[in-house]
């Protein structure tokens, strides 16, 4: 017969096995009962055979449970791996040729981080450009009114944005329009072009012009369209990309829209605004912050200038012909000579540009001159510390230089040195300016 201790163990073993509970409450009860019968956890292995069997069963149940938990945990960890891989894939797509570009996302899925890395992907940027009527209507007229230049031609639209110039070219009869855009705004362009049923004529390519190849085995195009101009003509401009595309993709007799630009300079009277912008720092709520005036003065101001402020004639600093110019021609190093139009004070110099579509039979231009109408480029104002008191027909002479950082066109360096010997005042001035973004 079994003793009381062994009988207890047998009963509990049967109860444990019949319950089909691995490591559950009944196993715990068995463990406690075994231990209360004289076999502790530390001595179970040296107890009676039945006690040993009971303890091994419990340990086996616990091991099975742990194994099950480990497998479950592994599955849970594995379930996160695809998401992590997806995030890494996203990050990898953001880096293209050393630059941080936005991922190819639906516009509605872009986050603030995506827009920070790809600010031109936001529709508001393009809204401002489209509402610039001088800019947009001039491009439209240059294209639509010259269908004979576009009919059955292959057109390359560089920096297409939402695709407005591509739509103009397609409407003008182009056989194929290749629209290239590095920003994720191209996702908007796809929808717009499809909505207007030009998706069979316009092909969109995401990337920098320097990194892409033309589709369908095409090697050369007939026309390049690009709004390549920036503030002060070169700030954040695409001129290098246009020169590259011209040399690689444009046929020898091909056209560029627009293909010529001239930078101009003029003197203005601007005492009130200069005082508000510069002299204001002399006393700010009773505190002298005049040390900032020099820094304020060295940063050119992009703003709209009233044509009534102009007090000298206009001087052409340099003309750029995109059909023939090279990278080395981008910088400006020009002497200037401004003649006074009336008795007045000169507080600043202003630069602006005029671009031309010389392929058009009728003269077609975009002028950013003061008084020519509002454009998003506005004008660029260069204040200098003193002012020149001029009389009608007197001459103010000097030298203007602009150096473009070819690695980052958001960095421009300027020097304006001039001298003036007039009846009322004499002035010599050397000034450095910086545009940075």
UniProtKB/TrEMBL annotation:
Residue ranges occupied by any Protein arginine N-methyltransferase domain in the UniProt entry: 259-422
Pfam families in UniProt: Methyltransf_31, PRMT_C
EC number of the protein: 2.1.1.319
Cellular component terms (Gene Ontology): nucleus
Keywords per UniProt: Methyltransferase, S-adenosyl-L-methionine, Signal, Transferase
Single annotated GO MF: histone methyltransferase activity
One biological process term in Gene Ontology: methylation
Keyword Transferase: yes
InterPro entries documented for this protein: Arg_MeTrfase, Methyltranfer_dom, PRMT_dom, SAM-dependent_MTases_sf
Catalysed reactions, semicolon-separated: L-arginyl-[protein] + S-adenosyl-L-methionine = N(omega)-methyl-L-arginyl-[protein] + S-adenosyl-L-homocysteine + H(+)
Cross-referenced SUPFAM superfamilies: S-adenosyl-L-methionine-dependent methyltransferases (SSF53335)
Catalytic EC class: transferase
Keyword presence, S-adenosyl-L-methionine: yes
Domain Methyltransferase: 151-256
Superkingdom of this protein's organism: Eukaryota
Signal peptide start and end residues: 1-23
Name of the protein in its database record: type I protein arginine methyltransferase
